């Protein structure tokens, strides 16, 4: 008999998620998807399902966009829910709270950025694989997504600003993307780059930042089981404010490492200088692993506020994933791993 041992961070699924609501919503969305063509039917079905389960703000014309309607890959959602990542040990964050409290500096620095982010044009969209790879190439985003086996994973997300959420991402392991890119064995890092279009993204007109947004991981981090490429959330194609059409989720690190709206993956043997590292290296380093014992220079990291209320809970080392990822850093000495 197969006995599945829960991950250390997991609670029983019924305790972590309003199970009847979430599963019923998934059933409704699956049924609605079968009623018509993918683009139009999916958008209408999503709005109906969200309205039924209280996921719109009810402001008559100012509803929060919870997906990109007419997304060409809409037929792929909801995806298989991977039981190994069934919850993050906490209740799911209400979708409206997650969708309306975002960082997306390409569109500005305020927390109501979800409105401005609707200017993001997600099609056409191409992703470049270059640097130390067998063959440099450019791939259409829909071709890339359909080449992968999508699954849903519930992860914690911890912002460096000391707020947190728990959301059901849909996507595929970053390891699969690395294999798809076919890097050379000599590559040690992957540098990620977002779009750069100030005519579309007003925040990129801020000249004190060095655009485009860049991030980086070691190859060991990028191919770890938890590193995840996100193309959807809450059972739908990912909404623009989360970083459509493709973003990263590395749940043991502070959220700024999970770069949004990616257009380039460059494999290299030199450690990349990241966007926030270049902007302020005294506050934001390359590693950015979550640690309650290491304060940000301007605030404590000992606790975090859960979105949707004022409740604060203790911060956990590596955001609760220490047992899984601590070994990545066993041979790293003299590095500010938690900045």
Please give a structural write-up.
- It is a single chain.
- With 339 residues, the chain is α+β, with helices and mostly antiparallel strands.
- The protein contains 11 helices and 13 strands.
- About 11% of the residues have low confidence.
- Strand 12 and strand 13 form a beta hairpin.
- The strands form 2 sheets. Strands 1, 4, 5, 8, 9, 10, 12 and 13 form an 8-stranded mixed sheet that branches. A 5-stranded mixed sheet has the order 3-2-11-6-7.
- The chain starts with 12 loop residues before the first helix and ends in a 14-residue tail after the last helix.
- Helix 2 runs antiparallel to helix 3.
- The longest helix has 15 residues.
Descriptive tags:
single chain; 339 residues; alpha+beta; eight-stranded mixed beta sheet; five-stranded mixed beta sheet; 11 helices; 22% helix
């Amino acid at each position: 008999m197969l006995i599945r041992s829960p991950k250390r961070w997991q609670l029983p699924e019924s305790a972590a998620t309003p199970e009847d609501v979430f599963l019923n919503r998934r059933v409704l969305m699956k049924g609605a998807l079968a009623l018509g063509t993918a683009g139009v039917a999916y958008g209408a079905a999503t709005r109906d399902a969200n309205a039924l389960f209280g996921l719109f703000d009810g402001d008559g014309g100012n509803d929060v966009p919870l997906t990109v309607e007419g997304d060409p890959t809409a037929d792929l959602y909801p995806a298989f829910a991977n039981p190994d990542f069934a919850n993050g040990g906490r209740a799911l964050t209400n979708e409206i709270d997650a969708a309306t409290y975002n960082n997306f500096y390409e569109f500005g620095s305020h927390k109501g950025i979800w409105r401005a982010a609707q200017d993001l044009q997600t099609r056409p969209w191409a992703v470049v694989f270059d640097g130390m790879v067998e063959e440099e190439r450019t791939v259409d985003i829909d071709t890339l997504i359909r080449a992968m086996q999508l699954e849903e994973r519930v992860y914690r997300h911890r912002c460096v600003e000391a707020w947190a959420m728990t959301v059901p991402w849909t996507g595929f392991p970053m390891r699969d993307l690395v294999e798809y890119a076919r890097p050379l064995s000599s590559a040690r890092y992957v540098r990620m780059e977002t779009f750069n279009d100030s005519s579309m993204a007003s925040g990129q007109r801020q000249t004190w930042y060095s655009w485009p947004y860049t991030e980086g991981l070691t190859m060991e981090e990028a191919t770890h089981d938890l590193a995840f490429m996100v193309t959807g959330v809450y059972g739908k194609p990912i909404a623009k404010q989360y970083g459509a059409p493709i973003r990263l989720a590395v749940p043991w690190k502070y959220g700024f490492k999970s770069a949004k709206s990616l257009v380039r993956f460059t494999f290299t043997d030199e450690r990349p200088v990241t966007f926030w590292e270049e902007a302020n290296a005294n506050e934001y380093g390359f590693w950015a692993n979550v640690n309650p014992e290491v304060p940000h220079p301007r605030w404590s990291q000992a606790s975090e506020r859960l979105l949707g209320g004022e409740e604060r809970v203790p911060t956990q080392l590596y955001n609760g994933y220490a047992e899984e990822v601590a070994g990545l850093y066993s041979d790293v000495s003299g590095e500010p791993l938690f900045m």
